[in-house]
Design goal:
By secondary structure, the protein is of the alpha/beta class. It is built from 15 helices and 22 strands. Strand 19, helix 14 and strand 20 form a beta-alpha-beta unit. The longest helix has 22 residues, at about 100-120.
């Protein structure tokens, strides 16, 4: 990492001020272990202080007019765009994300904030036809949307900037206040984002940033009675724990998956290959909509597989700081070991490893596995690694059935995203209706997301939807008003 050292705030952000805590720790590059920054970790007292500050911040944000909230978000978006190179370096350093993907993340985060700013001005209710009910002819009714209050946002390591913006942006657009706990491995972008919001004129306490362990700081936020909502992105196992410990709070959970794609014999093979290579190996598969499973029509399976394996073997692995790098390190040793163990288990159960299955330092080489069964862990569990499995089908409806069975054969019943490559409109429509997933993309891999779309999964892949407009709906309450004209 060339001895890179990042400038980050020296403390946690509580009530508009940076405070030192009694605990500091190094943030190291996942690629070579180089320490890139030191951060302060919050303790339980800091959690209480941050929630109290957020309550005070909410008293200010709830009274702000929509145009003021929009202006703050727009200013932050502009500042982020102006400092894009700095944030790219930060993402590469703390997450090990290859530079090309880190640059895309920063661009998307700018978009997410701008979408949030626009939605701040669109927050509205509707009239209700009270005279539809006998006896209410002389009543007039309408509902309005109001912010919930203090929102606890718990972010993931894999998109330490954009997925934080997907939580913070809509929450502030709606007039809420936020206590943000970034992922333990990647807190730097969140801290730097806090700086931008302060500079943009956000009221003190409206955004508080407290790095720390999920098992302590995160769980304290989840259980805090003054927190009105928890929004979390991460694994299904942690999401299940949050669900069990959050009481009657509103929750939004964006969880894991073993997403995949169906490729039939009518599609443009070049397009399918290109999109599936990106979907299967971008950021080493450490993406919740990673295209982990491929279902290929038997007439094109041999050609597709040969070309796919060749493409995977040509990917440039190594230092994520280099512009040429396509595959960087896994986030930590545990993630690397788990990816390798899934492949080893598949091999021992009769699967064929067509390429990869090994590591070079902290980098797991792109891996393609065939001759798999739906109940193999490499298929039915979330790999979160650069691993792609291949199965074949003879009939398109069989492919839909195989996809759905593979989603539910493991510990968790996933259903986040599916890609379908076909030029047959009837098949595309059958897939759109028949695939059990929250997102279906025709002539795209599963690894796609536009930041303004409704995004989320079914079953164990999550609860609620993100995308600024849809997140705001999750982060507001409906208040019904009825006006009796007879009195």
């Amino acid at each position: 990492m060339y001895g890179i050292s990042l400038s980050v705030p020296g403390g946690v952000l509580i009530g508009g001020e940076w405070r030192r805590t009694g605990s500091t720790r190094p943030i190291a590059s996942p690629f070579d272990g180089t320490v890139v920054a030191e951060v302060s970790d919050a303790g339980l007292d800091d959690v209480d202080a941050a929630v109290a500050a957020a309550e005070s911040g909410f008293a200010a944000t709830r009274r702000q007019p929509a145009h003021t909230r929009a202006d703050v978000l727009r200013r932050v978006a502009d500042m982020l765009a102006a400092r894009a190179a700095e944030f790219v370096d930060t993402i590469v350093a703390e997450a090990g994300k290859p530079r090309r993907y880190a640059a895309t993340e920063v661009q998307r985060a700018v978009q997410t904030l701008r979408f949030s700013a626009e939605e701040a001005k669109r927050l509205h209710g509707e009239t209700v036809p009270m005279d539809a009910v006998q006896g209410s002819e002389n009543r007039r009714g309408w509902f309005i949307r109001q912010p919930l209050g203090v929102i606890a946002a718990i972010g993931p390591f894999n998109f330490p900037l954009n997925l934080v913006c997907h939580k913070v942006g809509p929450a502030l657009a709606a007039g809420n206040s936020v206590v943000l706990k970034p992922a333990s491995a990647t807190p730097l972008c969140a801290l730097k984002l806090g700086e931008l919001f302060l500079e943009a004129g956000l009221p003190a306490g409206a955004l508080n940033v407290i790095p720390g362990r999920g098992s302590t700081v995160g769980m304290a936020l989840v259980q805090n009675a003054r927190v009105q909502m928890v929004t979390f992105t991460g694994s299904a196992a942690v999401g299940e724990e949050i669900h069990a410990n959050s009481g009657l709070k509103r929750i939004s959970l964006e969880l894991g998956s073993n997403s995949g794609a169906i490729v039939d014999e009518t599609c443009d093979l070049d397009v399918a290959l290109g999109r599936c290579l990106v979907g299967g190996f971008a950021f080493s598969g450490q993406v919740c909509i990673h295209t982990q499973r491929l279902y290929l029509h038997e007439s094109i399976a041999d050609e597709f597989t040969d070309r796919f394996v060749s493409g995977a073997q040509r990917l440039t692995c190594g230092d994520p700081m280099l512009e040429s790098t396509e595959i960087g390190p896994m986030i930590d040793r545990d993630a690397l070991d788990r990816g390798l163990s899934l492949v080893a288990e598949a091999r021992s159960s009769g699967a064929q490893i067509l390429c990869g299955g090994e590591a070079d330092g902290h980098v797991m080489l792109p891996t393609v596995v065939s001759s798999v069964e739906p109940d193999m862990k490499v298929v039915c569990e979330e790999a979160f690694a650069p691993v792609v499995t291949i199965e074949t089908f003879a009939d398109f409806d069989q492919a839909i059935d195989k996809f759905n069975r593979g989603s539910t054969a493991g510990i968790y019943a996933y259903g986040l995203a599916a890609g379908v490559f076909t030029h047959n409109v009837n098949r595309a429509l059958r897939a759109a209706e028949g695939l059990q997933a929250g997102n279906v993309y025709i002539n795209d891999s599963a690894t796609f997301r536009a930041d303004h779309q409704p995004y989320g999964g079914i079953r164990d892949s999550g609860v609620g939807r993100e995308g600024p407009r849809f997140a705001i709906e999750e982060m507001t309450d409906i208040k019904m008003v009825s006006f009796n004209l007879d009195s």
